[in-house]
Please model this.
Amino acid sequence: MPSINIDPTPKNTHDIVHAQYSAAAYMSQACLCSPKDYPSEWLEHIPSEIFDYNYCCGSPIFKAGISAGNVVVYLGSGVGIDCFVAAKFVGQKGKVIGIDMTDAMLERTKNYQATVADKLGYDVVEFIKGHIENIPLPDNSVDILVSNCV
Model:
């Protein structure tokens, strides 16, 4: 396990959330949230071990109205499961951007990104570091913005 630098005395909400999810990227925490099941056909291209680090409370993807060619941004993307699911919906001409503030979660997503792209036959997912209060993207550059638990 890589070493993680977590401030033992968080000073604000960002520090608290950052510390909790940084640790969760390396050690599965079953009680962190209450994940909901996804339809199996949405998951065939995603390595099963990634679900050990899934800390969402259900997926907003099926309600988002995502279509082929859309640019989708997912706030608080964590290990990227919903981004990888959305990639299936946007297809080869779309794009999915996952935004997360924790380096540890972003590092874990990169471990799976190539495998997902290989299984899909295309790579349309990008992960970037950022805070949801200051989204690091140009205005009017996306079609759909989704999140849950953030």
